[in-house]
Amino acid sequence: MPSATALLRRHDAHSWYVTFAGALMSLTLVIDLVFHVNMTQPWLNWLLLAITVSGAATALVMGRRLPRWVGITAVLIFLAAQGYFLSLADDPQTVVSAMQQLPIVAFYLGWFVRPRLAGPLIALSIAVFGVVSFANPLFHAEGRIGAPVAVHGLLSLLFCYVAGNYLWRRAKRVEATDALTGALHRAPFAERAAARLQRTSAPISVLAIDFDDFKQINDARGHAAGDLALESTVSAWRTELRSGDVIGRLGGDEFAILLPDTELTEASAIAERLHASSPHPWSWGASEYTPGDDIATLLARADAALYRQKRSKQEVDRA
């Protein structure tokens, strides 16, 4: 049997959520089956119980290896089932139970499913559940449940989706961002730049940056000093750059800055201004987008200009 530490290492937020959500839903279904008198469709509750128990056990065993499609499939099944349960005009207990489970599903969609899929699913769910609730006499003014319960249930669904979506976006931002400097990692930077190149006809330039004598800082003063040099320099850049400019850390002390709506001459002027305000020296090269370029081509030309500047500095130092 794996130790508690090994079990924790095997899981991520997704697998833990599926495990505990499945366990919670299983418990509510068991309570319904045991205490609910005159249940309309007990076989459906038994089927859902088998799905939730199996899902929770699978997530517990597989951990982070659990595919996202498993969770999405379970969500679709439960959304369909809850839509049916909410329509039962002669079973108020099942209707209330279904309403209580909606936030669990909505939170999952918000946290672990891409918004372009989760958003339409939530919108469709709210529309369908709203229509079903409106048609169910139990939610009418004279009904045994009343309209406020339906409204509160739908608002809870929407709130939990928004809260989950916040966590999704926060996780993506943390994943894409260098913890030390706040710059984007290489792949997210390239994706952001490529998307910008595709959707604009305005001039775009890129700066390629490499810190001067960075290895000597680490060797002579330690890595903490090197980290401070990187952090303070990138912070100084941010005070000078525009809100639409994008900083990327390509690796080590190599950075790139995407400058939308910027021609090559203006990009050079920006680089000079950034250099003057930086606490640590660095070399740079600039390139401007031309038709047919991709971000790799753009960076390659900027890198070539960067190393020409470095060679020029070395020749001056030798002289």
Write the layout of secondary structure elements.
Layout: H1 4-10, H2 13-35, H3 42-62, H4 68-86, H5 92-112, H6 115-135, H7 147-176, H8 186-198, E1 204-211, H9 214-221, H10 223-240, E2 246-251, E3 254-260, H11 264-277, E4 282-288, H12 295-318
Antiparallel strand pairs: 1-3, 1-4, 2-3
Helix pairs in contact: 2-3, 2-5, 3-4, 4-5, 4-6, 5-7, 6-7, 9-10
Summary, kept brief:
This protein has 319 residues and is of the alpha+beta class. The protein is built from twelve helices and four strands; from the N terminus they run ααααααααβααββαβα. The chain folds into two domains: 4-176; 186-318, Reverse transcriptase/Diguanylate cyclase domain (Alpha-Beta Plaits).
Walk me through this protein's architecture.
- It is a single chain.
- The protein folds into two domains: 4-176; 186-318, Reverse transcriptase/Diguanylate cyclase domain (Alpha-Beta Plaits), CATH 3.30.70.
- Strand 2 (246-251) and strand 3 (254-260) form a beta hairpin.
- It is 69% helix and 9% strand.
- Helix 2 runs antiparallel to helix 3 (42-62), helix 5 (92-112) runs parallel beside helix 7 and helix 6 (115-135) runs antiparallel to helix 7 (147-176).
- Strands 2-3-1-4 form a four-stranded antiparallel β-sheet, with helices on both faces.
- The longest helix has 30 residues, at 147-176.
- The radius of gyration is 28 Å and the shape is elongated.
- It has 319 residues and is of the alpha+beta class.
